[in-house]
Amino acid sequence: MANIPEYMRVRQYVVDLVMSHPNIDERIMSERELCSQLNVARITARRALKGLIDDGWLYVKPGKGMFIHSGRYRNYATSMRKFYKIMIILGDGKNVHLDGFCMYIMEQLCARFRQLPVLLQTTNLIGENGQTIDELSMYRPDGIIWLRPPQTMTPTITAMRQKIPVCVVGNTPSGDEFAATMDYHAAGRLAAAWFLDRNYRCTAFAGHSPGSEVISSVMDGWLEEYAERKIPLDRSLIISDDEDIDARAGMLLKNGLDGLFVFGADFLAIDSAITSSGKTCPVVMDENYCGDYGAKTKAAAKLLMFPPEIAAAAATAMFKRLSEPDYSVSEVIFKPEII
Prior knowledge:
It is a single chain. The protein has about 350 residues and is α/β, with parallel strands linked by helices. The protein has 12 helices and 14 strands. Strand 3, helix 5 and strand 4 form a beta-alpha-beta unit. It starts with 5 loop residues before the first helix and ends with a strand.
C-alpha cells in the first residue's frame, strides 16, 4: 500500500483494539508486539503510538506497558456492549465533498442507525485501485454500505464479501446478493406516462448519459413507454449531458415544447433556458434533494427515484445481518413514484 502511510494502518489497528478492549487495567499490545503482528518497523509503530498518546487514547506505565486512558474509555458505550462498525462509501470512494444528494443519504442512514449500537465510518479511499481491498481491510469494518459504486469496484466488492457483508445501494437492479435500489426502468416509463397521459407528445428528455447505467435505464423505460403506446418519438428531443443543455433546451423551447423531463443535477440549466428564452412548459424533474435551490422555475412534478425507504432498507438489513447471523439478505427493489 505505497500510497497509504504505514503508521496510519497501525494507528487504526490500535484504535480498534481500544474500542474492543475488555479491561482497561490490562495492557494492550506493546510496540514490539505490534511490529510482529503487522510486520512493520519499530519506527512506524512508535510514530502511531506516540500520536495516540498525544491524542489522549493511551498512556505508558513505566515497566508495565501501554494502557488505555480511563477517561477516554471507562464509560464509553462500546465498553459495555457490542457495537458494529459500518463503513459508508460513496461512489468510487474518492469523493471529497458531499452534495445535497449524498447528504440526504447520510441523513437517512444516520436516522436509522443513531439509536442502534452502531459506529459509522466514512472514508475517502486514497490508495490506487489495486490497493482498495487492503485499504478497506485496514479499517476493519464489520460491514459496508456502498452507494452507487462504479463497475470498476465490482471485483473489490466481491472480494470484501468473502469477509464481511457489503450492501450495494442505488445501482441498477442486477440480481445482486445484497442490495437496495430502485426500478429505474419503471421510473423512465412513469415519467414518460406523466406527459403522454396529458397528451404532451413533444416532450424533451434532458440529461441523457449513455455512460451511466442508472440514467440509461431511465432512458430505456422512457423509450419503451412511447413504443408500447405506438407514439412516434422525435429523438432530436433527447438532450445529452455532454451538450450545452442550457443552449439546446433554449432552442427547443423557442421551437415549441409540450413538456420537459430533466434530472435534478441538470435542473438549473433548464431553469436558465426557460428564463432566458421567455418560453415555458411543464417540467418534471427527478428529486435529487439539491437541484432546484435558487431556481425561478417550479417543477410541475417530481419523480422519486431515491425515496428514504431505500436507505432505511439498506440500514435495517445491514444491522440485522450483523446482529442475527442467520438473517438472509437479498436485493430489494423499490417502485418509483411521481409527486
